[in-house]
Hints:
Layout: H1 4-12, H2 23-47, H3 50-57, H4 61-67, H5 71-91, H6 99-116, H7 118-129, H8 136-159, H9 168-184, H10 186-193, H11 201-216
Helix pairs in contact: 2-3, 2-5, 2-7, 6-9, 6-11, 7-9
Amino acid sequence: MQDDAAEAAGQDGAETGPRSRTRIQQRNIAMILEAALEVFSAQGFRGATLDQIAEVAGLSKPNLLYYFPSKEAMHVELLTGLLDTWLEPLRRLDPAGDPRAEIMGYMRGKLEMARDYPRESRLFANEILQGAPRMRPFIEGELKRLVDEKAAVIRGWQAEGRIAPVDPHHLIFSIWALTQHYADFDMQVRAVLGPEVADPFPEAARFLDGLYARLLGP
């Protein structure tokens, strides 16, 4: 059977940029990243191996290495793609909007992401728990600037008396903690709630709505 990587190379030669990728290359890259996400989210970066990722992807290890030279390259690719999606709800926080609606909308957006992207949440959590060796420049740079910018918006709302005077940074941290918990500790949540609760997210949303409505009341 003709190896997919060899076939892709035969079609494209040395050209492997995004614009020149064949359908085979695009398919294999998607398969590899999906497999890497599955393995990294379960095993962490240190516990994951190229052999595990190749097995989940259904590709040979040489085929895997044709597209990505190392597991670190896959990990960085996944994290880079994740961060734009992960930060979009915070970027949407509108200074001209209603303060409580904007903050609670952000909280609900984060909870929906925990529901819809649990593996991505665990991938990011594992990176942070390891000291963010691959993402530290982003966290200390772009992420910090974005959080500081939105914290200033929240302080402005507080100065106008439109929401309660709570520390903006710790408010944002609390939203991260209370929403991402449902992804990062999914097994624990479901075990404690029991099998009669098939989906914890609707009740989580009602609880967090009430919690933040009381917290933010001016």
